[in-house]
Design a protein that fits this description.
alpha+beta, two-stranded antiparallel ribbon, globular
Length: 207
Amino acid sequence: MIRTLLRVLRDKWLLWVAVVIAVLVAYFIFHNPYTGPAELPPPVQKNHAAPEVILYEGREGTVHIRLLADYKVTAAVKGKQTYSADTASQVSPMDLVLAWGIMNQPDVETHISYSQSGRWYQIRYGPDIPVNASYITENTANVHLIPASDQIASRMADIRVNDWVTLEGQLAQVVFQEGTWTSSLTRSDAGDGACEILYVTRIRSGD
């Protein structure tokens, strides 16, 4: 009887040890604290006077993409969401929530949270956040990414929340058979149509 009890206690102890080890391993694998600068410059944009049109082979065939503006953004990744079932996913398999300015400073970060759903992003923040709503709108964005190549698509897949990244490419308008999808060209808008659609030609860590 005592031997049985000791064996049961030993087995439970080993189980708890295994659980603790698994939790620690998962923490170090998935925990990815932001290590970039506390303040980042705003995106750089140059609108095209005569937008170039390219043919892009999407998942369901060729679509026309109008390149509206050169665009470069260095930001912290606050959210990452993949898509495969909607019309836009023919060309854009991923959205990133990006934040720049002072949005990554600890006294701001502790008061704010980000979430994504259905190609939208949501921001919740407490009353003590040291920036106002317009600053948050102008210094965050939900960006729909269109990879310019398989290599870019692979680099996109490796991006993690809290990474510090620089994305370069062109803000775009995509013409599907079902309709037209157009990027915002300003940082101050909100709501439907306020997201950036970025044809990504370069990704790198940091600046």
